[in-house]
Amino acid sequence: MISNSPTEPAFDRLLQVAVEVFAHDGFRDATVRDICAKANVNVASVNYYFRSKEALYAQALAFAFQEANRLHPQDAAQDQNLPPEQRLGLFITHFLGKLLDDSQLGFHSKLIAREIAEPTKALDDIIQTAIVPQFALLTDIIQKILNRPDNSLLVRRCLLSIFSQCLMFKHSRAVIDRLYPELIADEAAIAASAEHITQFSLAALKGLA
Amino acid sequence: MISNSPTEPAFDRLLQVAVEVFAHDGFRDATVRDICAKANVNVASVNYYFRSKEALYAQALAFAFQEANRLHPQDAAQDQNLPPEQRLGLFITHFLGKLLDDSQLGFHSKLIAREIAEPTKALDDIIQTAIVPQFALLTDIIQKILNRPDNSLLVRRCLLSIFSQCLMFKHSRAVIDRLYPELIADEAAIAASAEHITQFSLAALKGLA
Amino acid sequence: MISNSPTEPAFDRLLQVAVEVFAHDGFRDATVRDICAKANVNVASVNYYFRSKEALYAQALAFAFQEANRLHPQDAAQDQNLPPEQRLGLFITHFLGKLLDDSQLGFHSKLIAREIAEPTKALDDIIQTAIVPQFALLTDIIQKILNRPDNSLLVRRCLLSIFSQCLMFKHSRAVIDRLYPELIADEAAIAASAEHITQFSLAALKGLA
Amino acid sequence: MISNSPTEPAFDRLLQVAVEVFAHDGFRDATVRDICAKANVNVASVNYYFRSKEALYAQALAFAFQEANRLHPQDAAQDQNLPPEQRLGLFITHFLGKLLDDSQLGFHSKLIAREIAEPTKALDDIIQTAIVPQFALLTDIIQKILNRPDNSLLVRRCLLSIFSQCLMFKHSRAVIDRLYPELIADEAAIAASAEHITQFSLAALKGLA
DNA sequence: AATGAATGAGCCTTCATTCAT
DNA sequence: GATGAATGAAGGCTCATTCAT
């Protein structure tokens, strides 16, 4: 993705700060001045290194995906030796953990969720790089449980049904925080939520198979 | 674009245009000048009728919920004489229809989805007036299928599992449009998607009961 | 002055409120809306009754002078039977009391002080109506103490010297409030200040005579 | 109009123009656009250099005091070797000269007089840095003539009596211009006025001592 | 006669961007 | 190559005023 990036520290600092700030404030509310100040670089640096605020955003988005995948690889769920039911549980637990990570890494998924909810021109690249592989992995698991071909409509629909249950905790977090805060209160609660999604989805898949 | 029938009072025209523009551009990118121009009123009208851009947004949001509920009432799903399984199907079909309505009303759900993804101060009011009733209705249906008390954690989690499958078509529409466009190609496809969510969820609920 | 004023209650209320608001906020900071709201009349009333905000100001100024003179006549100081030294004391006490009156009447002198510090076109009329008579009265007193003709330069200069000591409490009140608040703390303090000005001025006049 | 020598830095030009414009129009009526236009700089410069219109005003006020004191230092009046009666005369002459300086510097005292008549948040700072020293100097002189302690009420009252006679030429200049223009017609007249204030005050102080 | 709705000019401020160094 | 100064377009908002009723 970021093939043409010089490896200068100012450039990198700018990129990391941009992920955080864009994730926190959104594209419009984030200001170039704020990003530069937080990155300890000159105000003109964004235009110098990235040509424009918009270009910085696109790069930051690509960087966020790259980092999210580097830091949260779905290794266990890819193990073809495990039974698909167990792989499903691992996938969901891992994916939900990534989404709800409120540490520094949380910025990555937050920025991505923003981009999906309000796509810009940058989305198409991103889908190919980061979403398609996740979809492929989950497709593989579902297809084995349902015992149907990869490209069947049912597999695709079940894929969305399962993905959506995880994504809700990101997209509708504001609602969950207000109505059902106990479901994401701490790590144990999040693990229980992952377990529920797994059981709910397994029961559904078994019933539909 | 809503037809700006000049007979309509300026206040109403402003409100309808605001829903459109805020849905399309978001709060920050939308400009008062643009809204006023599209509504064929003076630039000062927003401040005259609504006191501020922020207050206009809050009113537009409330109006969007009101309109969405008025045009897609959940009457059938509330019928206590029907079996809960059928009520669930009706609820999902209606809810998905409301979310994917690309006619004039599509703006309403788009604006609402934006607000949930990036909450402003206006969200709290909205949750109470518009979301809580929907949650209550679905809770009633689930609780009857599961035969569990209203407030059990399981009921709440299943509620989110079902809601999320519908909401994904709104929040992640950009992804679906690109990867699985056939699932929302036309009204028949949407109906089939609703049917899938219903079957998936019913199988899950039966399995968990 | 206000010969063409209709005697309607709305008109009068507007005028009285205008004196207060202009005195408190100044011409620019005062808003027509605020004045109309406080006077319980329509927003358009100012333009209807007075043609413009500026014209309302001019009328309010004239009204303030008229009221100030009507409510604070310098009767005692005009008594030719009293010795001029006593008349000087009466004049100063009375004048200072009028200037420092913080009750409703205080608005009149505050508005007038504003006009003198930052004159508008309205000032010339005002000087003839309200200031000249005061100057004449004080001139008469001084001239008798100094035993000089009315129009001597010395009389004029002493007039200003005495007037200025009183006016300072109005024009530079902000400074006095901060550095010597004890000089205007209460009615007794104000009376003592008047007494000082009288003694200071009498001593000066005696010395110069 | 100050000569906008283009060699001067934009910051300085802005400050000098601000003194002029604020003195002429007052804080509210003065516009940032006008100031920038007169200073030949961009409209955004005020916010760039001074953060806000209000901050520019505060700086302009401080600058006015600084300039007024730099150009009219009270050196002679501070000379402890001179008799206090002579020092009083020097102080009054200098102070009145500063107030009535109609050259370029007239803007300074006009701005200051405005601020005292209609104080803003900026006044408190100004009092400490600019007024207190003047008061201290005059207090020293008066106390020596009266032979009383610095902090006696009488000294304070006499201080105000003397100050006020000078200030009147600033605050009530509009009235003097119309009724007694001969008192400030030219430099000689002003010197005569200063002489009068000195004699009047000395006679008073002697009488009260 | 008197009003309330509606207007438009103009204000301060923000911000991404540019330019000379 | 990299910066800090400077810009200009645009945004939300206020307010005296006008106009139809």
| Whole-number count of domains of chain A | 2
| Computed CA radius of gyration of chain A, to the nearest angstrom | 19 Å
Stated plainly, the CATH topology of the largest domain in chain A is called: Tetracycline Repressor, domain 2
Low-confidence stretches of chain A: 1-6
Proportion of strand residues of chain A: under 5%
> Can you give the mean pLDDT of chain A?
89
Number of strands of chain A: 0
Q: Return the structural class of chain A.
A: mainly alpha
Q: Which oligomerization state do the chains in this entry correspond to?
A: homotetramer
Task: Encode the helix/strand succession of chain A as letters.
Answer: HHHHHHHHHH
Please outline the major beta sheet of chain A: none
CATH architecture of the largest domain in chain A: Orthogonal Bundle
User: What is the first-to-last residue Cα distance of chain A?
Assistant: 39 Å
Principal-axes geometry of chain A comes out as elongated
Identify the most extensive interface between protein chains: A-B, 50 and 50 residues
CATH class of the largest domain in chain A: Mainly Alpha
Helix content of chain A: over 70%
Total count of helical runs of at least 4 residues of chain A: 10
CATH superfamily of the largest domain in chain A: Tetracycline Repressor, domain 2
Describe this structure in words.
- The structure is a homotetramer of 209-residue chains.
- By secondary structure, the first copy, chain A, is an all-alpha fold.
- Chain A has helices at residues 9-29, 32-38, 45-50, 53-71, 84-100, 106-117, 123-146, 153-171, 173-179, 187-208.
- In chain A, helix 1 (9-29) packs across helix 4, helix 5 runs parallel beside helix 8 (153-171) and helix 8 packs antiparallel against helix 10 (187-208).
- The radius of gyration of chain A is 19 Å and the shape is elongated.
- Residues 1-6 of chain A have low confidence and may be disordered.
- Chains in contact: A-B, C-D.
- The interface between A and B is large, with 50 and 50 residues.
- Chain A binds a DNA duplex (21 and 21 nucleotides) through helix 3.
